[in-house]
């Protein structure tokens, strides 16, 4: 069983920055990939960024050059640094543990608005 707790969401103006954090329980964190996804009402959840156990990353085209995913295995935590935020980045952001079984966090809301 893996529990994920996201934090760091909030209201930010266009062009601003936020850093999301996802803390995971369990000792196998470093062996597995982690991902950030987002969802808006009426749309499917979409991949934002993913990081493998070896630190390899991939991003959705819409966030490349603006968002950075990273992980700190000693703290069982994955981060999403979001810069140059746009109104279309407004969504509920979820953390995902990609293992033998997938686990999801409860989500953290990001609102980009002036």
From N to C, what is the helix and strand string?
Answer: EEEEEEEEEEE
Count all strands and give the number. 11
| Global outline | globular
DSSP strand content = over 45%
Helix content: under 10%
Name the poorly predicted regions. Answer: none
Number of helices: 0
Q: Ends: how far apart?
A: 40 Å
Tell me which oligomeric state these chains represent.
single chain
Largest sheet: 7 strands, mixed
The structural class is: mainly beta
Mean pLDDT: 95
CA radius of gyration: 13 Å
Detailed description of the structure:
The chain has 114 residues and is mostly beta strands. 0% of the residues lie in helices and 50% in strands. It has strands at residues 4-7, 10-12, 18-24, 33-39, 46-51, 57-59, 67-72, 77-82, 91-98, 103-104, 108-112. Strands 2, 4, 5, 6, 9, 10 and 11 form a seven-stranded mixed beta sheet that branches. It has a four-stranded antiparallel beta sheet with strand order 1-3-8-7, with no helix packed on it. The chain is globular. The N and C termini lie far apart (40 Å).
Structure characteristics:
114 residues, mainly beta, 4-stranded antiparallel sheet, 50% strand, globular
List strands and helices in order, with pairings.
Blueprint: E1 4-7, E2 10-12, E3 18-24, E4 33-39, E5 46-51, E6 57-59, E7 67-72, E8 77-82, E9 91-98, E10 103-104, E11 108-112
Parallel strand pairs: 2-11
Antiparallel strand pairs: 1-3, 3-8, 4-5, 4-9, 5-6, 7-8, 9-10, 9-11
Concise synopsis of the structure shown:
0% of the residues lie in helices and 50% in strands. The chain has no helices and eleven strands.
């Amino acid at each position: 069983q893996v529990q994920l707790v996201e934090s760091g969401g909030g209201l930010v103006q266009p062009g601003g920055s936020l850093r999301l954090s996802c803390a995971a329980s369990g000792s196998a964190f470093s062996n597995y990939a982690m991902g950030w996804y987002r969802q808006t009402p009426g749309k499917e959840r979409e991949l934002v960024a993913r990081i493998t156990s070896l630190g390899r990353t991939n991003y959705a085209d819409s966030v490349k050059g603006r968002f950075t995913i990273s992980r700190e295995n000693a703290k069982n935590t994955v981060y999403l640094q979001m810069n140059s935020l746009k109104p279309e980045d407004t969504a509920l952001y979820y953390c995902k543990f990609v293992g033998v079984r997938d686990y999801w966090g409860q989500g953290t809301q990001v609102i980009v608005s002036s």
